[in-house]
Structures are given as C-alpha cells and as structure tokens.
Amino acid sequence: MGIIKTKGIVLVESNMGDSDKMITLLTPGLRKNRMCRKRSKET
Fold it and tell me: How far apart are CA 4 and CA 23, in angstroms?
C-alpha cells in the first residue's frame, strides 16, 4: 500500500505503540476510512 492523500474529518484518533496512530476519517464521499499514521509523534 502506498501513500494516499485525501481530505476528511477526523472522527477517532488512538495511539498504537510509541509513535504510530490509528485514525478514522469521514471523507467527502461520506465514507468512513480507517488508516494507520506512521511516525506521527516524532519531533
């Protein structure tokens, strides 16, 4: 799976391990998508 760019509203955000997050988005097509965001807490 590659990188996907889309616009949406974050419904749920939860931590997975030290630096990853699992997010659920509501996209313009009114579909609910669940995806993993890698290295989102690095500074």
Answer: 14
